[in-house]
Write a structure and sequence with these properties.
Radius of gyration: 25 Å
Strand content: 15-25%
CATH superfamily of the largest domain: Argininosuccinate synthetase, chain A, domain 2
Helix content: 40-55%
Number of strands: 14
CATH class of the largest domain: Alpha Beta
């Protein structure tokens, strides 16, 4: 097609992105394809992925360890925002896309590529996230999406790859589409496309079935500094280790399973299954600590910001001016969100059972009903009169 001469391709090692390599060269006349695989904590060996890209025709095969950046620059801001898309999904997969896009743009600059490419299809959210993030970071780059345009079935795609020496999958293909990173797993397609079909236990990998969870609860104390999780049970941990350990502890108790009907960016509804053990626990704990340390008006106002923030992540607008402005507001609110939250993990449930902070706005001498009560009870009657005055006037006028 003559769109570009050198392309950096987001590469996973799967059938679609592997076939993208010869397809870009044979069908669209791309001279050089550079692949980039991002290590975001998939839990798999990326060495074979690198070799597969080269065997599939890539000129250069890059593997970037982006786990630390993924947690600190993407997951932690989302936790500070208590970001839950449609009050449900903590955006484990969506958060990875702007980072991958950033790595693509950086690699394109380093290797002098005039285009970047991805293997997303036309019905998913990821195409939107990649295209918009790339446009925000470098609008001069061409974005190529072969799988969005080639119109091949799964069988035809495999056959096409075989023509160029790409082996077909050696085992029976799973009916599910699965994406995994350090923050969680997303599972869709196959039998799950029927919203009435209960997911089989075989689809889960990070969380136990409730019947297999321990019969004793696990109490974990999570320490936050300015809204960022830093410790578990008093032990300081680096961001990757903190997420990994909490994934295991929460997943052992069956925490983090989400089964939802989701509104995709392209306008269709889809049935999605997620496993996000640590991310869900951290959001719950962080939100509770905010209740202790933020004033009521800030807390209420921030809830609307959080909804918009989550929607913007989901819709691919991470690098947009509004998302960045909202991030600045959220960072301002986090100055006092330092403290410890005690969480009870048990039989699939997250229960906040304790919290403390040097910045706590909880005043025991005002809250108590005991002998230490310092609240001015005599002031209550006058307050209620003034507070209810508009309602009283309205009532009088309405009845008059």
């Amino acid at each position: 097609m003559g769109r570009a001469e050198k392309v950096v391709l987001a590469y996973s090692g799967g059938v679609d992105t592997s076939v993208c390599i010869p397809y870009l060269k044979a069908e669209w006349g791309i001279k050089e394809v550079i692949t980039l695989a991002a290590d975001l904590g998939q839990g798999e060996e990326l060495g074979p992925v690198k070799e597969k890209a080269l065997k599939s025709g890539a000129l250069v095969s890059l593997v970037e360890d982006a786990r630390a950046e993924f947690v600190t620059d993407y997951a932690f801001p989302a936790i500070q925002a208590n970001a839950l898309y449609e009050d449900c999904y903590p955006l484990s997969t969506a958060l990875a896309r702007p980072l991958i896009a950033k790595l693509l743009v950086e690699a394109a600059a380093k290797y002098g590529a005039d285009a970047v490419a991805h293997g997303c299809t036309a019905k998913g959210n990821d195409q939107v996230r990649f295209d918009l993030a790339i446009a925000a970071l470098n609008p001069n780059l061409t974005v190529l999406a072969p799988a969005r345009e080639w119109g091949m079935s799964r069988e035809e795609t495999i056959a096409y790859g075989e023509r160029f020496g790409i082996p077909a999958p050696v085992k029976k293909s799973s009916p599910y589409s699965i994406d995994r990173n350090l923050l969680g797993r997303s599972i869709e397609a196959g039998p799950l496309e029927d919203p009435m079909t209960e997911p089989l236990e075989e689809i889960y990998a990070m969380t136990r079935a409730i019947a297999d969870t321990p019969n004793e609860p696990d109490y974990v104390e999570i320490g936050f500094e300015r809204g960022v999780p830093t410790t578990l049970d008093g032990q300081a941990l680096d961001p990757i280790a903190l997420i990994e350990r909490l994934n295991v502890r929460a997943g052992t108790h069956g925490i983090g399973r989400i089964d939802t009907i989701e509104n995709r960016v392209v306008g269709i509804k889809s049935r999605e299954i997620y496993e996000t053990p640590a991310l869900l626990v951290l959001i719950y704990a962080h939100r509770d600590l905010e209740r202790l340390t933020l004033t009521a008006d800030v807390t209420r106002y921030k809830r609307g910001i959080e909804q918009t923030f989550g929607e913007m992540i989901y819709e691919g607008l991470w690098f947009s001016p509004l998302r960045q402005a909202l991030h600045a507001f959220i960072q301002q609110t986090q100055a006092r969100v330092t403290g410890i939250v005690r969480v009870k993990l048990f039989k699939g449930s997250i229960a906040i059972v304790g919290r403390r902070s040097e910045n706590s706005l909880y005043a025991p001498d005002l809250a108590t009903y005991g002998a230490d009560d310092q609240f001015d009870h005599a002031a209550a009657e006058g307050f209620i009169y003034i507070w209810g005055l508009p309602t009283r006037v309205w009532s009088q006028k309405s009845r008059g």
